[in-house]
Amino acid sequence: MAGEITKDPGWQFLRQSPEQLIKETTKKFDSKKNVWIHDADEGFIPVEIKSTKGDMVVVVSAGGKEKTIKKDETQEMNPPKYEKTEDMANLTFLNDASVLHNLKQRYYAMMIYTYSGLFCVVINPYKRLPIYTESVCKMYIGKRRNEMPPHLFAVADEAYRNMVNDHENQSMLITGESGAGKTENTKKVISYFAAVGASQSAKKKVEEGKRKDATLEDQIVRTNPVLEAFGNAKTVRNNNSSRFGKFIRIHFNTAGKMAGGDIEHYLLEKSRVIKQAPGERCYHIFYQIMSEAVKGLRDKLHLSKSVRDYHFVSQAEITIDGIDDKEEMQMTDESFDIMAFTEAEKFNLYALTAAIMHM
Ligand SMILES: Nc1ncnc2c1ncn2[C@@H]1O[C@H](COP(=O)(O)OP(=O)(O)OP(=O)(O)O)[C@@H](O)[C@H]1O
User: Fold this and answer.
1) What is the pLDDT of residue 43?
2) Less Cβ around it within 10 Å: N or C end of the chain?
3) Ligand 1 atom closest to residue 188's alpha carbon, by position in its atom list
4) Distance CA 128, CA 84 (A)
5) What is the pLDDT of residues 292-330, one digit of tens each?
């Protein structure tokens, strides 16, 4: 099994190979001499202490540059055996320079998850890594945190097992600045719970006429495209920025199978509906409706003009690089079907949205 998982395409983004590990962790090191100092460009750089006089030290950088600074301004360096450590709680010196160095080195190797005790620090890779596949998901099911490389799935699995074993509610806080990856990681957590807690109940039939099969897991996962259509927008910092906060509750039955869910939302940025700053866009749904993905919808909503002619939604950007509003609209509309909205309910929602454009 261990051999098999290391062959998974995602493994290289989770843990370095034994060869790399040996190379990294056996570098020359002198704990008395090797330290970190502040650097205007790099944040912190490694230097070697050449001499000490009172509370001043002369340090030399890798490039041979010498500098005299206060000893207090240096930060201790960890021995190379901690290079790219998976849990920063292990570090002998937990100073800013060491934490940033560790996260940076792991990020350069595209290992985006790192523990810091109970926390899991994530760095946005801005590229799709094969670490959320079904095979990677299976690797983490039922495993202890220290048995596997850091991953959001491990945190989710631990929460799931604590819930099943201790019969206690569990919560996960996902936080960070705009564009940090909260929305993406939240979606992965929900998908993970959908996989481990699959209800396996008889498939429900959704809405007469559509005859689509939808499991409860599908329905819970599909809340996202709809919420994003109405509550996410392009900002200067993030093409898909959530403009509201949310508290997602997923319910499990006593057997640990998914039984339902609900979402509380807070503080939608309402001003965006009528005003967009330069470089930003209104909520995705307006442009999705205009995309013609749902045949005849624009006609029914009397949206015959071009987007630019609807003032409230066209004060800045109207398209987003890399986002196809037509595909997104298909996803939104299909998600409504999977969540068992009726045709009338869907139309009413679209009509209300269009009404704002007509104002
Ligand atoms: N794990 C990831 N893998 C690949 N791309 C990612 C990942 N996390 C984030 N991204 C990219 O970064 C973008 C911004 O991430 P996301 O929308 O999750 O940020 P956020 O923290 O929710 O921001 P906001 O607070 O503005 O809603 C995503 O649209 C995606 O392109």
Assistant:
1) 95
2) N
3) 1
4) 21
5) 999 999 999 999 999 999 999 999 999 999 999 999 999
Structural tokens at position 339: 């969540």
**Does ipTM exceed 0.95?**
yes
Closest CA to 149 of 10, 54, 245: 10
How far apart are the CA of 221 and the centre of ligand 1, in A? 17
Strand partners, 56: 53, 70
Q: What is the separation of C-alpha 196 from the centre of its chain, rounded to a whole number of angstroms?
A: 19
Cα–Cα dist 280/115, whole Å: 34
Residue from 113, 121, 124 to probe ligand 1 pocket by mutation (most atoms less than 8 Å from CB): 124
User: Does the C-beta of 182 come closer than 6 Å to ligand 1?
Assistant: yes
Query: Which tokens in the block code for residue 315?
Result: 């004060």
The structure tokens listed for 349 are 């929602």
The helix (run of H) or strand (run of E) holding residue 192 is: helix 182-196
Predicted TM-score of the model (pTM): 0.92
Query: pLDDT tens digits for 169-183?
Result: 999 999 999 999 999
Task: Find out whether the beta carbon of 179 lies less than 6 Å from any atom of ligand 1.
Answer: yes
Please check whether residue 247 is in contact with residue 263, taking contact to mean a CB–CB distance below 8 angstroms: yes
Each residue of 56-92: b (16+ CB within 10 Å) or e?
ebebeeeeeeeeeeeeeebbebbeeebbbbbbbeebe
| All structural domains of the chain | 1-16+109-198 (3.40.850.10), 203-358 (3.40.850.10)
> DSSP states of 232-259 as a string?
EE--SS-TTEE-SEEEEEEEE-TTS-EE
- Over residues 59-109, the pLDDT tens digits come to 999 999 999 999 999 999 999 999 999 999 999 999 999 999 999 999 999
Return the H-helix or E-strand segment holding 24: helix 18-25
Which tokens sit at 137?
């998901």
